[in-house]
Amino acid sequence: EIGSGLVGSEMCIRDRSKHMNEEVKMYMDEAKEQMQNALVHLENELAKIRAGKANPKILNDVLVDYYGSPTPLSQVANITAPDPRTIAVQPWEKNMLGPIQKAIMNANLGFNPDNNGEVVRINVPPLTAERRKELVKQSKGVGETAKVSIRNARRDAIDEFKKMVKSGLPEDEAKDAEDEVQKITDSYNKKIDEILTAKEKDIMTI
Fold first, then answer.
1. Are the C-beta atoms of residues 50 and 38 closer than 8 Å to each other?
2. How would residue 2 be classed by pLDDT, with cut points 50, 70 and 90?
3. Which residues of 143-180 are buried (b: 16+ CB within 10 A; e: fewer)?
């Protein structure tokens, strides 16, 4: 009977340990998700920073008045870059040409769209050297914000592991979890650096 009592308590400890491990995994997955979100947000923000070439993504945030409701431009028109200096916006409905031209002007992107009755064209002027430097600086700022989000996600996970040690998680397991989160953090920081390097190259390419 004593033996069965021991087995019972051992099973209880094992169950608790399993539950703990699941909890560790949950916080790990949560941190990873937050880091992934920071990366996606970074890519979206960088897409809006104009490089030397025409890129339809520059118009991602433009909202058009579509029968009284603000609608993303990409939902009312086909946006293409037929050459490195031009963005063409072809509305699905011809009567949207005027509202689209107005929306692009109101977006303060520094463009003067031309409406020829068929399509709205935007001439993308080449960037000055000064402007390129400003845009590289702006990109790095957005990258730093993403890195702060990643650091915060790492810190939150590690704080949870420390709380779990107080509730009975073995210290070596907590240490392994911390090391794992650090590895995930490093890999996301590396991705950010790669994205920023590519963006800088894009901006500086004439």
1. no
2. very low
3. beebbebbeebbeebbebbeebeeeebeeebbeebeeb
pLDDT greater than 50 at residue 19: yes
Percent of the chain with pLDDT over 90: 65
Instruction: Quote the DSSP letter at residue 121.
Output: E
Nearest to 71 by CA among 91, 54, 85: 91
Predicted TM-score (pTM) above 0.90: no
Query: What are the angstrom distances between the C-alpha of 136 and each of 21, 61, 133, 152, 194?
Result: 43, 20, 5, 24, 14
Q: Which helix (H) or strand (E) holds 63?
A: strand 63-66
Q: Are 170 and 13 in contact (CB under 8 A)?
A: no
Across the range 15-19, mean pLDDT stands at: 60
Is there a contact between 55 and 79 (Cβ–Cβ < 8 Å)?
no
